[in-house]
Design brief:
- The structure is a single chain.
- With 343 residues, the chain is of the alpha+beta class.
- 27% of the residues lie in helices and 16% in strands.
- The chain contains 10 helices and 14 strands.
- It has a 4-stranded antiparallel β-sheet, with no helix packed on it.
- Strand 13, helix 7 and strand 14 form a beta-alpha-beta unit.
- The protein is elongated, with a radius of gyration of 28 Å.
- The protein starts with a strand and ends in a 14-residue tail after the last helix.
- Pfam families: DUF6371 (PF19898), Zn_ribbon_16 (PF21957).
- This is DUF6371 domain-containing protein.
- It comes from Flavobacterium helocola.
């Protein structure tokens, strides 16, 4: 059987998207010749804000035999890299942000649980290691955060700072090649917990924070919207899965979950966030942070009165003129403190 063969370009080269006019389009290429198709066929990286994706459907005139090209074997990092990155947390912006919300003990437990690392790629950057249930290290994703807000640090072009450990090793000639094969962030935790329900989110930051807020679940992250797929979820097929997509991603995750459930998965997609007024891209960690800040803002601080103030309060019930005397002569207690009315 003959048919047209094509694939999305796997290089970092981008073209102008015909829909949003941003240089974010990944073109399709002919597998046989390596030639790009025209701008009508490709996928925009701005999936949420643009969503352009047009796939060629075989209306070309130069078909050829389909060649079954085996996938290259996946590469893995040495676990020593994970151990070596487990330091300098005082300089780690993400860890310092966590300490503004959680206790020292909770943060330390999260570090050990998810094996969070620190990178020299940028000052204060964080490494999120992707380690599977067989303790194989698939990847090290490097992100930069703002320590005061926990938001992604962005460059002058408005893009988040992101890099990969294998990319750095290739640039420094430490390794020659690396076949990236990602897995769920936190996947190694399924071997260390008796929990039977897995909570699945998109961002690594969200998984870590939610594991402290709601420790009754195993919190894993897909790392991206596209990470919610069969290949990544296969190791957790036997678990009950509750998926918590970011705001505006519910429809896509629900569609994919429906397909996966036909294959034997047990996935429920939570739609609570989708039905709120939060802006697109908001995740559950953002919501809990907002609620936490509101609770602290509205919290009434208890006023502790001195023994003198309590005695005068009782005395006032039958002699209210006592306050005229205190105000007229500016009386204070034995420690020279102002005497307040008990409210």
């Amino acid at each position: 059987m003959k048919q047209y063969k094509y694939n999305l370009d796997k290089s970092s080269k981008k073209f102008v998207c015909p829909k949003c006019n941003k240089r974010t389009l990944v073109k399709y290429k002919e597998t046989e010749t390596g030639n790009y198709l025209n701008e009508d066929f490709g996928r925009c990286d701005r999936e949420t804000n643009c969503g352009f994706h047009n796939t060629p459907t075989g209306e070309f005139n130069n078909p050829f035999e389909v060649v079954n090209i085996p996938k290259p074997k996946p590469s893995f990092h040495n676990f020593d890299l994970v151990s070596q990155s487990g330091r300098n947390y005082k300089e780690n912006n993400f860890i310092q942000f966590l300490k503004t919300i959680f206790t020292e003990t909770e943060v330390k437990e999260a570090i050990l649980k998810y094996l969070i690392g620190t990178s020299k790629r940028w000052n204060g950057a964080t490494i999120f290691w992707q380690i599977d249930n067989l303790q194989k290290v698939h990847a090290g994703k490097i992100l930069q955060y703002v320590s005061k807000t926990g938001k992604r640090h962005k460059n002058e072009d408005g893009k988040s700072l992101i890099d990969w450990v294998h990319s750095i090793l290739k640039r420094t000639k430490t390794i020659n090649d690396f076949n990236l094969n990602q897995c769920l962030f936190g996947l190694h935790l399924i071997n260390e917990s008796n929990a039977k329900t897995i909570a699945l989110v998109e961002g690594e930051k969200t998984a870590i924070m939610m594991s402290i807020f709601k420790p009754q679940y195993i919190w894993l992250a897909t790392g991206s919207k596209q990470g919610f797929k069969y290949e990544n979820l296969k190791p957790i097929k036997q678990y009950k899965i509750i998926a918590f997509p970011d705001k505006s991603e519910y429809a896509d995750w629900f569609k994919k979950a429906t397909e996966l459930n036909i294959l034997g998965f047990d996935i429920i997609v939570n739609d609570w966030l989708e039905n709120t007024n939060f802006e697109a891209g908001t995740d559950f960690a953002d919501v809990l942070l907002i609620e936490k800040k509101e609770a602290e803002k509205n919290k009434k601080h208890e006023i502790i009165y001195t023994d003198t103030e309590n005695i005068i309060n009782e005395f006032e019930t039958h002699t209210p003129e006592i306050w005229n005397l205190i105000e007229t002569f500016g009386l204070v207690d034995c420690n020279w403190n102002e005497i307040r009315k008990v409210i």
